[in-house]
């Protein structure tokens, strides 16, 4: 798939990973720092649910063809 948006997102992902030396711990730390900074600027982050609802419409759709 050669969608422009996907190509752009992958290029950004690659650049960010390269900045952190492709070290997943450093990447996670950079994300945490970015979240702290944006929250200090007044942006709100909504945490992801710990566990998805067992019978949600999304889950039924996502796993319907397996």
Written overview of the protein:
The protein has helices at residues 4-19, 24-40, 57-62. It is an all-alpha fold. The protein has a domain at 1-45. The longest helix has 17 residues, at 24-40. The mean pLDDT is 84.
Can I get a quick summary?
With 66 residues, the protein is mostly helical. 59% of the residues lie in helices and 0% in strands. The protein has a domain at 1-45.
Give the helix level as a range of percent. Answer: 55-70%
Span between termini? 22 Å
Low-confidence stretches: none
What is the number of helices?
A: 3
List keywords for this structure.
66 residues; extended; 59% helix; mainly alpha; 3 helices
Please write out the topology.
Layout: H1 4-19, H2 24-40, H3 57-62
